[in-house]
Amino acid sequence: MAIEIASDITELLYSRDFIVIPGLGTFMGSYKPATIDHVQGILHPPSKSIRFKLDFNAKDDVLTNFLVSKYNCAHSEAQELVERFVTNAMKLLQKREMLIIPDVGRLYLDYENNHQFLQETNNFNIDAYGLPGIHYYPVLRSRKQLGYSVDPYHEQKVPFLQKIKRLSYLTQTVVPVAIALIAVLFAVSIYYNKTNIEDRGANVFPVSFKEVHVNKSPLGVNTLPEELIIEEEDDTDIVAEEEDFLDPEPEEVYAEGQNTDALTLPDDVKHCIIIIGQFSQKDGVRKRVEEIYELGYDVYTDKNKNLTRVGVQFVYESSSEIKKALRLVKKRFDESAFILKD
């Protein structure tokens, strides 16, 4: 008859709190009270917690005497069976394999060569009749069964877990779409802003003189100092005549030295141009044009090789007005300003 020492150890643990395996160690049992696992919904009855203590020098004849009485064999034969079981168990552990004790647990060596024991779920507490864990489920009752007034809203209310699932689904689908849409809108806005900036920069000059400002700011407010204000006579006819003689809007590319913004005025009107500076970048031209308009003058620009010359232009009656304007321009902009035409 085949003798299974592992099964005999399992049988002994129902009646004893510890079993010594000579040359290997001791299985020890301790009382474990009843517990409730609310997460998994399991009620665990009182049981016996089994753990293993490694002890190569442990000695006890309980297992040997149990084999003698159960299998009616000699004591020496029972000792030999136990020794053979321990030898085979040590070989399994050295090979990184598990020593399985049925319904008790598994003994193995971890990566640090420490003996570890994993207990099975079998209940060795005979006072609890060896009851296993029991799954329980909450009893669901309607408000009508509980005696509450029936509310159609609560009768159709979605369970909490289902709401969580719906919220998770919306989070996983709607949020990525919203983020992608925001990114697209942001990219489009950057593109159009850049395009508008480039268009505004390209339209700064040459300046179109559809509306001629003579010693007046673009807003119609006179910003000149009092000593440079020229008392104007009724020039309705002159302005109308100027509009009739205005050139078409200038082209984007001009020949070298060509005047792009010279006023077309009648021959009897004296016209002066003062050059303030030359620029190679559009930003410099744009900035100077804005400053000239703020001062209350009309802008003059032309091409000089690869540079753009910027200046002020105005009509005058006497040479003293030119001198005053030149002093003001040199003080405000650049001392090297010079008269191009008077």
Describe this structure as you would to a colleague.
- With 342 residues, the protein is α+β, with helices and mostly antiparallel strands.
- The chain folds into two domains: 5-135, no CATH class; 226-341, Sporulation related repeat (Alpha-Beta Plaits, 2-Layer Sandwich).
- It has eight helices and 13 strands.
- It has a four-stranded antiparallel sheet, covered by helices on one side. A three-stranded antiparallel sheet has the order 1-2-5, with helices on one face. It has a three-stranded antiparallel sheet with strand order 3-4-9, with no helix packed on it.
- α2 (62-71) crosses α3 (75-94).
- The radius of gyration is 52 Å and the shape is rod-shaped.
- The model is unreliable at 201-258 (pLDDT under 50).
Short description:
The chain is α+β, with helices and mostly antiparallel strands and 342 residues long. Strand 1 and strand 2 form a beta hairpin.
Protein topology:
Elements lengths: L4 H9 L4 E4 L3 E8 L2 E3 L4 E3 L2 E8 L7 H10 L3 H20 L4 E3 L3 E5 L5 E5 L14 E2 L16 H4 L4 H43 L33 H10 L24 E10 L2 H14 L2 E7 L2 E10 L2 H14 L5 E4 L1
Antiparallel strand pairs: 1-2, 2-5, 3-4, 4-9, 6-7, 7-8, 10-12, 10-13, 11-12
Helix pairs in contact: 2-3
Distance between the termini: 133 Å
Strand content: 15-25%
Shape: rod-shaped
Helix content: 25-40%
Average pLDDT: 76
Strand count, sense and barrel status of the largest sheet are:
4 strands, antiparallel
- Strand order, sheet with most strands: 11-12-10-13
Give the topology string: H per helix, E per strand: HEEEEEHHEEEEHHHEHEEHE
Radius of gyration: 52 Å
Helical segment count: 8
How many DSSP E strands?
13
